[in-house]
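Revision sheet: structure tokens.
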Amino acid sequence: MGRCMTSDVMKAEYPDQNKRVEVCTSQSRKGAVKSNLSILVQEELVYAKYSRKGDPGPMSDYVFKSKEAAEKKAEEIGLKGAHEHETGWMPGAKMKDFQDWYNK
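Predicted:
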């Protein structure tokens, strides 16, 4: 993982450190050997502060069973209201409001 992160080629191809962490983590996991899993975990922990920075996580994390819970989340993320979705309630008065926030 460390070699991947500090590689000049990777730095040139992925100048955004957050993205480089994602790519290096993915490559590291693909080549992982079961006997070296503890090393893999330790390396990932070192770079964890960079990964998912600013990433809101999966959209499914924003589907709530109640309108009130979705409105509360909307307030936390800077939106207003909630809208009904196929599987529950989501933050934002409209799906477009939520999608605009999510894609930022």
